[in-house]
Design goal:
The structure is a single chain. This protein is mainly alpha-helical. Helices cover 66% and strands 3% of the residues. The chain has a two-stranded antiparallel ribbon with strand order 1-2. A hairpin with an 8-residue loop joins β1 and β2. α1 crosses α5 and α2 packs across α5.
Length: 116
């Protein structure tokens, strides 16, 4: 086993490094999209969000359309993954809706604005 690693260590380490970079950039993409979406939602519905708890914000979000397709254009990297995930997904509306449900979006909207 050790002989196999020694012989192919460059390729094994390169694959691990590429995977780590993929996850890092995918998480960055998620963070950029979250910040953009939260900023848009606060600009559009800021007065209706102030002083509400997450349950009330979730109820409000169920009544409106969330511009997932619009915020996907903010970044060009083709993969996205949530902060605790180790599996990247192709960046799409469906993947973003799955990662960022209305409950998760509500928690970001209720949180202080300095959250990055």
């Amino acid at each position: 086993m050790l002989d196999f690693y020694r012989e192919y260590s460059f390729w094994i380490n390169a694959a691990i490094l590429l995977y780590a970079l993929l996850i890092m950039f995918s998480r960055r993409t998620y963070r950029v999209i979250v910040n953009s979406l939260v900023s848009q939602m606060r600009n559009l519905y800021g007065n209706r969000l102030s002083g509400k708890d997450p349950e009330q914000v979730t109820a409000m979000l169920k009544k409106i359309d969330i511009p997932y397709a619009e915020v996907l254009k903010v970044t060009s990297f083709p993969f996205i993954t949530s902060p605790l995930s180790i599996l990247p997904h192709l960046k799409s509306e469906k993947a973003l809706e799955k990662m960022m449900s209305r409950d998760v979006l509500a928690s970001y909207l209720v949180a202080p604005q300095s959250r990055k």
